User: Fold this.
Amino acid sequence: MPAPHAKPPARRLAIRGDLLDFTAAPEWGAVESNAVRFRPDHWLLVEAGRIVGAQPAALSEAQGPDASWERHDHHGRLVMPGFIDTHVHCPQIDVIASFGAELLDWLNTYTFPAEAHYAEPALAHSGAARFCDALLAHGTTSAVVFPTVHKASAQALFEAAQQRGMRLIAGKVLMDRHCPDNLRDDVDQAERDCEDLIARWHGRGRLAYAVTVRFAATSTPEQLAMAGRLCARHPGVYMQTHVAENRAEVRWIGELFPQARSYLDVYASAGLLNERAVLAHGIWLDDADRTVLRESGAQIAHCPSSNLFLGSGLFDWRAAEAAGAAVSLASDVGGGTSLSMLRTAADAYKIQAMAGQRLTAWKALHAATLGAALALRLEGEIGSFEPGCMADVCVWDWAVGSVAQRRLDVARALHERVFAWMTLGDERNLVACFVGGGLLFEQRSG
Ligand SMILES: [Zn+2]
Assistant:
């Protein structure tokens, strides 16, 4: 008689390619780094959805993964952990690449009308499915996501992620002032909705709840206090919001909260900063703010393509690094112009170049993998090929097109190759995307 809880046989998967991940944080500016783990032409071994190890493909056939392993031979391709996008808006796929506005205009002209559609559950569901599939098609397997103010939009997003087995952190947006009537909640109903969603989704499979304050201007002090109470009542939940993105916004926050020392201080005073807080942008911070970030363990989700597109400003990554504040990389679509974390990383390089800094491929790619995982306290699950981590794995072509191919052909050192890939590549380089060992995206040939 079988044991009552006998597990099904473990599915064994072996993925061959040039394995690249990180074992520590690379130093600023260093193109040679012990934090980089590059294992050219190896098999990455997966059992029951988790990484179990790796071995050189050069071993003899007898010693390599045998017929009990489902083999995916991507010899000559780059294999990396799935990217982690720490700040992105599900409904804003509809307004990506909208012309001619800075943040506050852009919200009113494009974003709020698009988000109003998500009151309709059927649209919220189709939008969430489209969004999750788009993330996977860009090599992003984990994300921290804003849906809309509507409870149904958070519900739809969690369901879509659950169906795909993705690591997703999200929560209903809190917004009870300075927004259109059809996007406004109130403190009591919002608290009930959050409690319901936390009970239903937080910690379920690979999902986690984030108390989601849009930004300080769109929540009353009463609502911010309620959000702080939610964080205190549920210590494992995340918190996500925006901070210090644009100068007009920062001035406005100063008028709305005259007692606060700074924009960040509004959130600190409401009890919203902790080691699970993710704050998008953080361009217009000072040293005291950066110290608060380090001491609280909160991270900045740096959104370079959005910051350039909306003309918001140039993030001082080096200062955040020097202060010991965690920095991850994020697309911020639809303020950002691509879900591709490669294009995001390439834009991050250009922003640092404007400040006379040199962002290495290691620093940028670490921030989109292990660095983000560490900042989210999820390094045991995502962000690297450490045994025990979930097999969220992406296979990439090193080059697409004649220009990238030529650049690759003449590149010598590893950083040179990876930097060219990061700078010239995008989602067209993605060949396959596995989530928990399941193949969820494959580029169609031709
Ligand atoms: Zn945003």
Remarks:
- Confidence is low (pLDDT under 50) at residues 1-7.
- Residues 87, 89, 242, 280, 332, 335 surround zinc ion (CB under 6 Å).
- The first strand starts at residue 12 and ends at 22.
